[in-house]
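>> received
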Amino acid sequence: MNELGKIRNFAILAHIDHGKSTLADRFLEITNTVPTGKLMEQHLDRMDLEREKGITIKLAPVSMNWKGYRLNLIDTPGHVDFTYEVSRSLAAVEGVLLLVDATQGIEAQTLSNYLLSKEQRLNLIPIINKIDLPNAQVEKVKKSMVDTFGFSADEILEVSAKEGTGIEEVLDEVIKRIPKPYGDISKPSRALVFDSMYDQFKGVVAYVRVFDGKFKTKDKIKLLGTDTEAEATEVGYFSPAQEKKEEISTGEIGYLATGLKNVNKVSVGDTITSATNPTREALSGYKPFKSMVFAGIFPVNRDEFPKLKDALEKLKLNDAALLYEPENSPALGFGVRAGFLGLLHMEIVQERLEREFDLELIITSPTVSYKILKTDGSTQEISNPTKLPEQTKIKEIQEPWIKGSIVTLNNYVGPITQLVHDKRGQVENMEYFSDKVKISTKQPLAEIVSDFYDRLKTVSSGFASFDWDLDQYKSIDAVKLEVLVAKESVDALSQIVPKKNAYNIGKALVARLKKVIPRQQFEISLQAAIGGKIIAAEQIPPFRKDVTQKLYGGDRTRKDKLLDKQKKGKSRMKKVGRVEIPQEAFLSILKV
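>> returned
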């Protein structure tokens, strides 16, 4: 089936936990794409982590047949960290189902997804989900969608994805309201790579949307971005497993196995064309992503660094946003400095490395990227505090700020604005709609990557959602705070902090480290320092064996002699003893 008029490409967008994956399950069931007996909950969420956490991490495409039409759906993540996955999906479709929970209403990510869709000029079908729940406020949510987005009340569909209510109507409206895909089958073949995976037999498998022409098995293909030629060893659709076909043509979403073994040759956002009759014009990709949070990843067993490197190469193919480079730490040995989209993305990568590749890892505390304007006129960008130049060479340090959007209930405005100010941010604007308010903020990203999200949930009793985008870099009076354990600088515990907060942070840091570093047979000194000047210190007392226990009376000098011998032993041990720093010590920095 390759008539353009019989194809519809669409994505489901929603805030996290508003029911995207359940709606996708009902589509698979009603269209009989997956037989009822084989249908699992969150069927398109293939990772164990997705099922455990109840969230979608990776986009998932599937082709369905409904009333003579081929419906190509892309299920997308809802968490703010994975906006890049959403933008890739939007580059491959013509329409969007905008899903809102009838019990929770419009959230921050709902607003963000709406704006993303409007930027791409996609057709939107608004849907209210979970209408079967006793606490559903359908009319109230409908009114807020009319007021906020400008939809008319009669174009908003009401469904219960769990019960299957209204699902057939949604599929019918997809056919009516979403336009047929554009493209020209007679032009040289062009396809956009919106995702990829690695298969040990097929090599790199590109997930593609074909915009012009068609691709057949055995076709010679070319990737324009990396100037790489290959052969299409297999093409097909997702049903939702890969289903081999003779060809995929204009307007269709499918996969193309390249046979390539080098994962870096197929980059997401690239254009695939025919090697024999190539197009001259590459397709514009999705919204590019930028790493926002950086952390060091080190194996606990130093001999496992090659295993870590190999694991990251394989993981990167299934996660285009993961960036990393080798790093050597005197305290932790060989590892990598990795860039992530946010804290959830960092947590997911760590869990996948530990589970899928059987690695035991230490992750250092997350930092952001700083711009350093030097006295010689040059600019340097650093994400690792240990690479901060000497103070005499620095003219100015700039940190990234974000534009934030917090959606919450009216009665939590006070505590949330106070939290924003505590985190060096400022409230720019407030917009009220029904019982909710949208608070627009500007905040330093460094404050967001610590515990901002946790504290936001606490002060709002869970009734606040947060979305953000990078704004600009602003000047900051900052210093490098070093941590010394047993007089040795632990580079992995260093951080860049505002100068006015340095003393309080240093004091809190050594106090927390005192609680998490285990006692040894010798005294351990913990110090926080700026440029060699100690600003805070703590001591971890040693274990002390009672060496006089075996004495029964006698001269006092016998007791003093034993205590003096013990003291000398402790002193010698303090000079040569090494302190093993547990993972909790690195995690504890997050809470300071």
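>> Residues 556-576 form the longest helix (21 residues).
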